C-alpha cells in the first residue's frame, strides 16, 4: 500500500531520459586535441551550440547530448514519426482551409484507437463505471430507471471492495485485491486452470515487467511485433535478438529457425532470457495454432526462456478454423505446471473489441517464478503508485462480463457481436482489395485489428526513396497520405525481413467508410505503380 505523500507523477520516463546525464557532464570537457578535431570552423557556430545554451548564453542543465542515448536512438523510430506528423499537419490544414488538399478528411488507419474512430463504448461497462465514479447515484430513485439492475448490483459490489468507496484513492500496488480476485476467476473460467490474485499485477495498460528488462537480459521478439513492446525493453537496457515470422505460412513461428537464431545469439555471448510472443498478432493479424503454441512452450521450457505472452487481442477472432488459446492453457494441456515454465501473460482493456484505450487498464499474470524473483517483481511494482482505479474496475468487467440470465446479457452480446462482425467484414474487404492489386499480397486476417500487406515496390520507387534518405515503405506511405489522406504505418517501424516492404493498416474505421478507403487506395496504388514502372 502506498502511504507516502509522493507527488502524483510518474518519473520513470524522465529518469530513463536523464540516466546518462551525470555521466555526460563528467565528460563535457574532452582533451584539447579532440576539442580541436571536433570544433567547427573559426567564426562559425552550430544550431546545436544555440540549443545547448539558454538566452543568457549559459550552458543548459539538460541537452540532447546529455540525454540517455537509448532515448535519442528511439526517436527516429517512434510511432509519431514522419507519416504521423505529416498527417497531423494536413489535419490542421484542412481545419483552417478545407480546400487545401484533394480530399476533405484524414482517415486514420495507423493507430489502435477504436473509439476515436467512432466505435461506441459498451453500455454495461460504462454504466458500472459511471456508478462507481459517482456513488451518490446509487442513492437516487431514478437510477433504477436509467441503469440496468445488474450494473447497479455490480457497482455496489465493486465499491464494497474499494477503501473509502472512492475511485480517487490509491490502492495496493498490485491493484485492489477484490478486483484481482475477480480477474483471477475470469482467467480460471477461460482456461480451466487455477488462477490466483497474488499472481496478478494490475497495470496502466499492458506493460513489460521492469525486473526482466535491464542490461544483460536479452529477448527474442517474434518479428513482426508492435514497436512499443520492443522499444520499452530497449529503453530499459535489454538487447533484442529479432526472429522473423514466416509470412509464406500465415506468419507462423518456424521453431527450427527460431532455435538457430537463439543458438547463434548465444554463440556471440548474448544471454537470451526470454521470448516475446504476440497472439493474436500485431500487426500481422494471425492467430497461432495450438500446435505452434505447444512448440513455443516446449522451446521455452527446454531453453530456460521466460515466455512473455502479449494476449491483448484474445477476443478478436474472425475465423472458425482457429480459436484463441492462452499460453497458460496450452502449457497446462501438455502437462506443464508452474514449476516447468516461467510465464508472464498480458491483457488490456485498450485492445480487443472493447477499445477502452483512454481508460489505461490492464494486467500481467506472473507464474512459474521462484519466491525470490517474485519478491523482486513486487519490489518494482511497489516503487510506483498503483494503476488508475477506473482501469482496474474496467479490467475486472472485461474478464467478467454479463452472463446468461443477467439483465444486460442480451444487449452486451449484441454490442460485442456487432463490433466483431463489422471488423471481420472490414478486414475481408480490405484483404480482398490488397490481394487484387499489382505487386501486393496480404494474409487473411484471423484476429486482432490490423493487416500487414506486403508491397513489391518497383526499383525506381526504391531509388526515389533512397534519394530522399527515406525507407521505401515510408516513401510509399507518405505518397499514399499526400494523395488520399489515408494514414498507414510503414512496416520498417515494426521490423520485417530485409528486402521486403510492408505497411500496417488497421480495420478500425467505421464500416461505411471502407468503400471510400478501398476506392482511394486502388486509384493511388495503380497510379504509383505506373509512375515508377521500369
TrEMBL record:
Residues 32-45 have a biased composition (Polar residues). Its cofactor is pyridoxal 5'-phosphate. It is an enzyme of class 2 (transferase). GO terms for molecular function: L-alanine:2-oxoglutarate aminotransferase activity; pyridoxal phosphate binding. Keywords: Aminotransferase, Pyridoxal phosphate, Transferase. The keyword Protease does not apply. Residues 28-56 are annotated as: Disordered. InterPro entries: ALAT1/2-like, Aminotransferase_I/II_large. Residues 151-512 form the Aminotransferase class I/classII large domain. Its EC number is 2.6.1.2. Pathway: Photosynthesis; C4 acid pathway; Amino-acid degradation; L-alanine degradation via transaminase pathway; pyruvate from L-alanine: step 1/1. Homodimer. Belongs to the class-I pyridoxal-phosphate-dependent aminotransferase family. Alanine aminotransferase subfamily. Transfer of C3 units between the cytosol of mesophyll and bundle sheath cells to maintain a nitrogen-carbon balance in the C4-dicarboxylic pathway. PANTHER family: ALANINE AMINOTRANSFERASE, ALANINE TRANSAMINASE. This is Alanine aminotransferase 2. The lineage of its organism: Eukaryota, Viridiplantae, Streptophyta, Embryophyta, Tracheophyta.
